[in-house]
Specification:
Blueprint: H1 2-5, H2 78-90
C-alpha cells in the first residue's frame, strides 16, 4: 500500500550550457589607489626578533678574562688599582 502512494516523477535534465567568461587578467595596479602613511619615527619598530628569542646568554664572570672593566688595565699594584677604582666611582 505504501509503495503505491509513491509517485515516480521523472526528472528531466538538460545538457550543461557553456557560458562565456572573461579571462582573468591579474590584479589591478596599486598605483591607482592613494597611499596615506603615517611617518614612523619610532626606531624600536624597525626590527624586532622578540618572537625568535628563546633565552638570553650571560657571560659567566668566574674563570673568564676581560669580564669587568678593570681586566683591560695593565698589571697594577694594589695602590694603583685602588686609585683606578676611586676614579671610576667619582666619575660615574
Amino acid at each position: 500500500m505504501a509503495s503505491s502512494m509513491l509517485s515516480s516523477a521523472a526528472v528531466v535534465t538538460s545538457p550543461a550550457q557553456a557560458t562565456m567568461v572573461a579571462p582573468f587578467t591579474g590584479l589591478k595596479s596599486s598605483a591607482a589607489f592613494p597611499v596615506t602613511r603615517k611617518a614612523n619615527n619610532d626606531i624600536t619598530s624597525i626590527a624586532s626578533n622578540g618572537g625568535r628569542v628563546n633565552c638570553m646568554q650571560v657571560w659567566p664572570p668566574v674563570g673568564k678574562k676581560k669580564f669587568e672593566t678593570l681586566s683591560y688595565l695593565p698589571d697594577l699594584t694594589d695602590v694603583e688599582l685602588g686609585k683606578e677604582v676611586d676614579y671610576l666611582l667619582r666619575n660615574k
